[in-house]
Amino acid sequence: MIRDASEEGNDGVILEDYTIKDLEEDAIKKYRNRFSSREPDHPWNALDNEEFMEMLGGIKEDRRRKIKGLTVAGMLMFGKGLYIRDLFAKINFDFREEIDVDSNQRWSDRFTIDGIWENNLYNFYFTVINKLTSNVKVPFKLENLERKDDTLVHQAIREAFVNQIIHADFNIQGTLKIIKTKDSLEFTNPGSLKVDLESIFKGGNSKSRNPRIQKMFSLIGLGEGAGSGFPKILAAWNEQSWRTPELKEETNLNQVSLKLWMISMLPEECLESLKNIFGKEFNSFNKDEVLILAAAYLEGSVNNARVKLMMDKHSYDITGILHDLVEKGTLLVDGYGRGKVYYLNTEYNSNADYNIIPIKDKLQNNDEINILEYIKVNGSISNKECRENFEFGKTKTLGLFKHLEELGKIKRIGKGSYIKYVVID
User: At what angle do helices 121-133 and 25-38 cross, to 10 degrees?
Assistant: First the structure.
């Protein structure tokens, strides 16, 4: 936590007793060729490798401590594999292609640390990126009557790969892992998110864990700055009408994964399955309801946060849609508050009681749903707590409590200023 709080990032630490001789010359040469092709008149092109690496942030001098050596960034990006394996023994690099595999064959292609190649980040990125973007099924575009193969999707895949590297925590146990299947790419890196999910999807707020490595990539045209990378990925996926990318933080494993689905947001197979489950009732669902049901079918479950990433609606409105789908019997719910998860009701029966709840017994609006959610999480709610948390007026608050009491959803306990409301089991 202290390490992540540093504005300097994690990759500026000087590795004492490691020098330019401990870097792979071939990787530096290839990088400098890319750099000079992009910036032919840049003054750094005239520098020798050590000077160039110092300007790049791969070598650093601490005059106060009178030491100079490779930085973590320089070693990880260009180092010889032996020293990287020695200094970062807890970290592994692993790419797997799992296409046309069976029980006897777990992958169709693999690139991992095996002693055959110099396992630095530069070599890992430029070997794997070609494997990732080959056979990407996107329509080509014509620009000035010439075919343009570098589409938004290709750019987004590069962005996802660079993001995985610059946000990884190389000080903990974990694997920089990429899995390619017929219809998805999944990027996993050790560490946690430094920015909340909503801010990441909106963009404009970036906190790289490895800013020097980020700079090294950006100088050769890879990786967006100022937090604009993830919106670029979303734009590319929206252009193809593919399923919304799924970004999740797995705190129990101390890792973050990004899954890029290369299939339609509403594939025909999914729609046909939903029609088979819900029969003629399927035609009564609106666009938002179909999208939520499809996500629950394709991903196994959904929650409020996941739905919010798929549609431009407030959490309160999404809670209302989810509640309506539960009342219709199309979704099954488990948990409370932020831990609430919704599953598709594959045993749906249009004649069951949940589909014919009298209107007078239904919650009237999202405000009442949110009050019940609050009570379930906190145990009770008072008039004051309701007004402060939801910014309701006194009259509206009393009206909501009254209607919930009439429905038999809540009951009043206590007297006078100590009155609180609890859920009736």
Answer: 60
**Residue 349: is it exposed, middle or buried by C-beta count within 10 angstroms (0-12/13-18/19+)?**
exposed
Tell me the C-alpha distance between 282 and 330, whole Å: 10
Residue 40 to residues 27, 36, 46, 220, 259: CA-CA distances in angstroms?
Answer: 19, 5, 10, 12, 37
What does the block give as tokens for 366?
A: 């999202």
Q: What number does CATH give the domain 268-357?
A: 1.10.10.10
CATH 1.10.10.10 is the classification of domain 366-423? yes
The per-residue pLDDT for range 89-107, each reduced to its tens digit, is 999 999 999 988 776 778 8
| C-alpha pair distances (Å), 349 with each of 277, 281, 345, 412 | 9, 10, 9, 36
Of the options 3.30.565.60, 3.30.540.10, 3.40.50.620, 3.30.559.10, the CATH number for the domain spanning 2-261: 3.30.565.60
Confidence of residue 359 (pLDDT cuts 50, 70, 90): very low
Please give the biggest Cα pair distance in the chain. 82
Rounded Cα distance, 399 and 365, in Å: 12
What is the Cα–Cα distance from 412 to 158, expressed in whole angstroms?
57
Burial label, 16 (beta-carbon count in 10 A; 0-12, 13-18, 19+):
exposed
